[in-house]
Amino acid sequence: MRIGGFGWEWQENRFVQSVSLYQVTYQPLAMQPIGATFMELTQYDHLSPSDQNLKKTPPPLTKPVPKGAQYIPLPKPGTITVPPIDLRKAFETRRSLRHYRKEPLSIEELTYLLWCSQGIVQVVDPFYTLRNVPSAGGRHALETYLLINRVTTLRPGLYRYVPFSHSLIEIDSGLTITDKVMAACLGQAFIRSSAVTFLWSTIIYRMAWRYSERAYRLVHLDAGHVCQNLYLAAEQVGCGACAIGAFDDKLMAELLGVDIEEEFVLYCAAVGKR
Q: Domain total for the chain?
């Protein structure tokens, strides 16, 4: 039996999905009120004192860069010119787009998308930053990874955006990285045809330091703010975006080389030329 076009099959009392490079197995679960339990236990009545209230040292405002990593500088945002667009028009024409032209994004266009979705306006160290998107308490607990397929001056591969230096670092330039990300996103083929796919993770303690268990709610709200800015900025540079919430959490953590207890992917979005 195939489900949803992704090659799901019922084998020996479980669902199995076969995709390139991976085989993902899901055991059927009895219906459990997981969501309701989450909402209950993250209410303020149940929260433990935050580490901020306990006067503990705040975590870094950004993820450290590995020693020896090569920074790839991006154009300064102030030097980038983009076509003007009426804000109401951007709201009304915004649609999720899954089919893209083969034309690459310029490095300036990619920079503009990064600046609009995660650009730092002011640092109030060590407690918070002000960026082009809102975040609970200014904690900005998200990290931005990029699957680059077609961007001028960049070779295809997986990168991380470093907002404090407004630069990229390369994580994986292997020939199979696009297929691996697509497989982790349950085989959604438009990831392969996109010019770039954004992957947003959270380092949860950066938010939990201030908000304790409530942080698990807040980081999801923050991801929505970031993705909406990306959608609107994409309209301005002749692109379309498609948000992605369907992915295998463990495979994503493996691809990014992170400890899923400390950092995990929340949201993704593919972008390409209309």
A: 1
